[in-house]
Structure formats: C-alpha cells, structure tokens
Amino acid sequence: MSKLSISKQLAHLMKEHGVSQSGLSRGCGVPQPTINRILNEKTREPRRDSVLRIAKFFDVPAESLYKEVDESEVGTDILSRTYQQIMALRPDQRKKLVARVLECDK
Q: 92 with 66, same domain?
C-alpha cells in the first residue's frame, strides 16, 4: 500500500469518471483554479468545504480523498460497478451490448 496525496486521489477519481477540471468545477462549484492547484500540489490542504463538495460530486466520503489505496486495486471499483450494471440488464439487452463491444474490436 502506498499513501496517495489528495492530488493523486483526485486525479484518479477524475480519470475514473472521465471528468475534466472544468467539468468538475461546474459540477461541484469549486473554482477551476482551486482544482488545478490541488492537482498540481500547490494546495496540499484545501479548505474543508472544497473537499466536501468534491467528495459529494464523486459520491465518496471526504476522508477517502486522503486514505491509503492499494494500487493493485485501482480500477477494480469501476470494473465491479460495470459488471453489476451489465448483470442488471435483461438477457436480450446483454446480447446487444456484447455484440456492440465485439464490433469495437474489428
């Protein structure tokens, strides 16, 4: 395990969710320059209200932005959620999805 700084944790969440700095700013109300300073580690301890807004946007506990993460599990959460969503589909919907995915490989 390695301790991730808030900047790395934030960058991970943004990548996992496909969110840009400006998109995050619009979505959570934290100014884009503040997000940029957090990502560039110019701000290592952002204001609590900014952390709370960012955490709410990603639907994660604020403390998770500071927690230790097992880097071997990075991406596991999104994979697990995707699998659950696929399994929630009707069989005919899953077949259509698989067909579309296979078309991407061609």
A: no
Q: 19-74 pLDDT, tens per residue?
A: 999 999 999 999 999 999 999 989 888 999 999 999 999 999 998 888 755 555 55
The pTM of the full predicted model, rounded to 2 decimals, is: 0.61
Domain containing residue 13: 2-72
Three-state secondary structure string covering 43-86: CCCCCHHHHHHHHHHHCCCHHHHCCEECHHHCCHHHHHHHHHHH
**Alpha carbon distance 54, 28 (integer Å):** 6
Within this chain, do residues 48 and 100 fall inside the same structural domain, yes or no?
Answer: no
